[in-house]
Fold these 2 entries.
Entry 1:
Amino acid sequence: MMDLIANLISGLSLGSIYALIALGYTMVYGIAKMLNFAHGDIIMVGAFAVITTVSMLGFPPALAIAASVVCCVVLGVCVERIAYKPLRKSPPLAVLITAIGVSYFLQSLALLIFGSTQHSFPKVFSVPTLALGALTIRGDMLVTLAVTTAIMVGMSLFIAKSRTGKAMRAVSEDRDAAELMGISVNRTITITFAIGSALAAVAGVFYGTTYGFIGPYTGSMPGIKAFVAAVFGGIGSMPGAMLGGILLGVIENLAKRYISTELSDAIVFAVLIIVLMVKPTGLLGKRVTEKV
Amino acid sequence: MKKIFALALALMMVLAAFAGCTNGTTEPTEAPTGTEAPATTDPTPDSGASEPSAEGEKLVIGGIGPLTGDYATYGVSVKQGAEMAVKEINEAGGVNGLTFELLFEDDQADAEMAVNAYNKLMDNGMQVSLGATTSGACIAVTEEVQKDGILMITPSGSQKECVQYDTCFRICFTDPDQGNYAAQFIADNKIATKVAVIYDKSNDYSNGIKDNFVAKAAEVGLEVVSEQAFTDQSRTDFSVQLQAIASSGAELVFLPIYAQEAAYILTQAQSANISAIFFGCDGLDGVIEKIGADNVSATEGVMLLTPFAADAQDEQTVAFTAAYKAAYNATPDQFAADGYDAIYTIKAALEQSGAKPGDADFNEKMVAAMTAITVDGLTGTMTWSADGEPTKSATAVVIKDGAYVAYAAE
């Protein structure tokens, strides 16, 4: 029983990291109608930004996290401006391939700068491990869970209440109509990329703290998993991304523990296939009827 | 827009040029060490007087190992250990009038790159091969060695197939043997009775040791309470495996894996307050460097089965460790000792056979000498059987305050 609870908590912590990344995927998809496959690598950049600022420049942890967020926001906006904006009117396939190209570019750049070795991630926050009888829970996992939940609630409020949030929803619903209403589509898309990248930076910090090491390819697997989470929950839907991410983390951990460590990824993807067969738009996705 | 592109491209080219520079400079650094050594022996009058014909004659030894990438610590250690032995031998006047020259190539622990490196070394006149440092790469190299028929002594290729051909020998233990020795050692020293294993299912090295460990454990009365696997796709998150081990009540966790994965496991185990002893094999060597200064406390108390301990008090080890520290500003690990012993094994085979690199039957003589010699090396007193396996005894080291300390039974 204790074992199950401990695995549930570590699954929730992993899932909330997935959810943070999936939020970025789903927001960009909802608003720019493109799959930003470079999103996973932004996590890696964010984590490396912390490593560089803490171990080389001696920044205090809070400042390093802020620097990492700024660095990722600038990178996200630059990537959008340089690589995606010129392709706004191109076929989706061209944008998709560009995104994959950006992903490889970021990985190779990191490889060039930091080398292929795994860098140990500095302890930006340390929380003692909780011991409740036979149950031990890692403190950093609880912090991850708490902070990501707060961010997700904040994001939902932001999208629902703020002017920018309304603009984002409007662009997501009908880009041309939004433009006619006086909403700057380009500005909204840029803001979306900035927010998505900031979330990725935070995810990078948590990923680094939980697992200890960062390499140039660290972002790719969580990136793919988060994409799956976004599709699982219904791509374009923010609550869907959160639900998808958290379910994915929990399913992955429980499958690892009770079925097979080697098969856990296969099981995760099998669940995805089953969900998509039953609900093609994902758990919380909306069915969009094409009007002729 | 175009300007930004041009700027980005220019930046990339500058970076690429820098990368080219560093690659370019690593190679020539080997050449001076090779050429320096003969230069110092040349002016010594007695070596020239006793063997006038051999002046300038040298034996070219080729080594391959990961000098960059995740497994670089192994290759760098082997290279440095071998370099030290070559330097000592050359300073003492060489063997039979020959001086040794060591060429070392990077393979990033990749089989294909290792074969390319081997071919490059053959082009550069290699006469004896040190095989490759890691098992997978070494097996690929043995296929080439078999075609050329030269003597190969791998310092650390521990998988069974690393010595599958007649001219192949090794310094380290085989993987299955490490599993047996580890179980035996744990039982003999009463370190634990309930043990768990975390192994890499996608890696032959890890599977080989694990299977033997589990089989031997049953024989010597150890109870394996949990077997946890991971794969190269899932080698970062060990929360589930560690949780399973914590609830299994294991007193010791056996880690037949490499240092990078162990670094993940140890840091996560520390965060999760897991108090079991971690026990590994030669793959765990170098874990202190991998884990980084920030997390070094996570390695406290980790035990390694190894034939070499840098702080052992015998004369040979003390001298080697001091010289190694002076030369490379690092504490030698088992791989460095393996590399060092491999060079001395070649020396012993040369002395035994009296062969000269020019001889038509040089390779045959050297191979024949291998089963006749006894080498009193850093990693123990070794003899070889015709199948290429060494016979020597195993000990363990414990990590204390970020350093390897010889294990003393209580």
Note: DSSP finds 13 helices and 15 strands in chain B.
Entry 2:
Amino acid sequence: MARYIIRRLLLMIPVLICVSFVVFFLMDLAPGDIVSQMAPADATPEQIEMLREEMGLNGSVLQRYGRYLWNLLHGDMGTSLSLKRPVMEVFIERLPATLKLAFASIVIALLISIPLGIAAATHHRTWLDGSSVVLSMISVSMPAFWLGLLLIFAFSYKIKLFPSGGSGSFKYLILPALTLGTEQAGNLTRITRSSMLDVIRQDYLRTARAKGVSEKQVIRKHALKNALIPIITVLGSTLGNAFGGAVAIETVFAWPGIGRLTVAAINSRDMTLATGCIIMFTLMLNLTLLIVDIAYAYVDPRVKARYSK
Amino acid sequence: MENNRILDIENLVVRFETDDGIVRAVNGLSLQLEKGHSIGLVGETGAGKTTTALSILRLVPDPPGVVECEKLSLDGRDIISMPIKELEQIRGKDVSMIFQDPMTALNPVFTVGEQIAESIFLHEDVSRAEATRRAIDMLELVGIPGERANEYPHQFSGGMKQRVVIAIALACHPKLLIADEPTTALDVTIQAQMLDLIRSLREKYSTSLIMITHDLGIVAEICDEVAVMYAGSIIEKGTLEDVFNRTKHPYTEGLFNSIPNLNDRKAMLTPIQGFTPDPTDLPSGCAFWPRCPYACEVCKKEQKDIRISDTHYVRCSRYEEKDFRINRKEIS
């Protein structure tokens, strides 16, 4: 198991290098650059060139990438061009807000989707099953920013219950977490339902019933643990996405997280900050997926047996 | 007499109401089993043997299954009207079942020890530790080293898994054991071991047994009585001697004729002609008449239970004719 984890961690290095390469070159291809934005309007071409050199943006894209990668391999993600502060420092500052939102939304999503998915599967082809399918379809198809706007309209404009944006006390967390959680709940409900439906037909549940296990325990103990693998898979990618992908929701609710930071960095052509944020996001996503794979082993002994080989 | 019966089924009907029509799995089956006795339920695939067994535990999936009967009592207690809580206490305790396919009958995410202990913990007033200890005893009883209790089903071979399934079924010393083709999914070499195991455990705990199989050899080996099923009902029932040596029903005769003759390996098999009837569209009268070499007009309209002796009866209207005989010779 330990060897497996180390191998997975080492495999992340080439992934991160590839990601940094792609992001760096795409950013270079984008029109406009930060130097012309930052230079005074009456600057001469020589002055602009000097500024470019000061910011470390001189030379061909390959040269610049080489320098960036060299620093990166030494653990230095550089300084944000627009904020004039180390990228790592800015990132760490914004991280708690994103983590808070991600975990709060996942908790909401799980609280909705697991019971609903199980109920749908155990009441297959009834109105309950049907409405769970419709509800999850709606939640998956509905753009998150739109749901966010509706919630703001309802709960901060009409009924002044929660603030419409910003961060601070627990009150600020509720609307964005609810929006993100509802979106995630759709997918999780669908996967819980189909996974449970699959397991419910298995012979070993009949064995459990024949032993005298109550129906409640058959579902909660014998079926759910078997159904967990696909649920954990989706949960992992959902959580990974919430870490860096909640851009729209962070924007709608003016939530000071990584998503908004990244978008701002891209808009201002802040090469180091944007690349840094995306690399960190990639790292977090990869770590989440690794945790998911480790979690499999605890749920399914057959997977564990594979790892130990 | 009544009190001596472990199982009493009167006119059991099970049908599955599916989108493609009504599947008539069991049609008016009656079966009585004395305490301590063992009966073999024999028939082709699709004859309704497993469905009958599941009805006894009320495990027929509903929907689409619908179970109706005049009487279904286990050790004098009515199963059909029993509340689900009481039923859960009976399952695994008074009656338990060995399933056909050991590969899928065990839960892959729990250790075999946990799966055996669960049954003991549910039914007997013991601590978890005590249940686990007894589960290990059970494992050793079926010939698996106790230290393997902490292993998972995927670490066992098919025969070992079936031993575990048997251990689960016998963990609480049930009064009635239903073995649903316990050896079908196993190698022939393992089959004899399983049968020996079931027989010795049955003798040890004086358990009544319903052995579901399509293998007449197995029946001859461990059953006192035989019931032959065809299209969801019992068409001949009697002691081993009755059915094996004084075969009455044309279908039973067909079954015996289909057994390969080991003394004459070049001999051709004599299969029963035709196929088992479509359970969504059963023939009128006796369900066997389209395949029966003795069928006549009356068979298309009705079927009658004819009592041959105290222990032996056959469901075939032709025995109303005084001198009707099938070709198979009686063996005395």
Note: Residues 188-205 of chain B form the longest helix (18 residues).
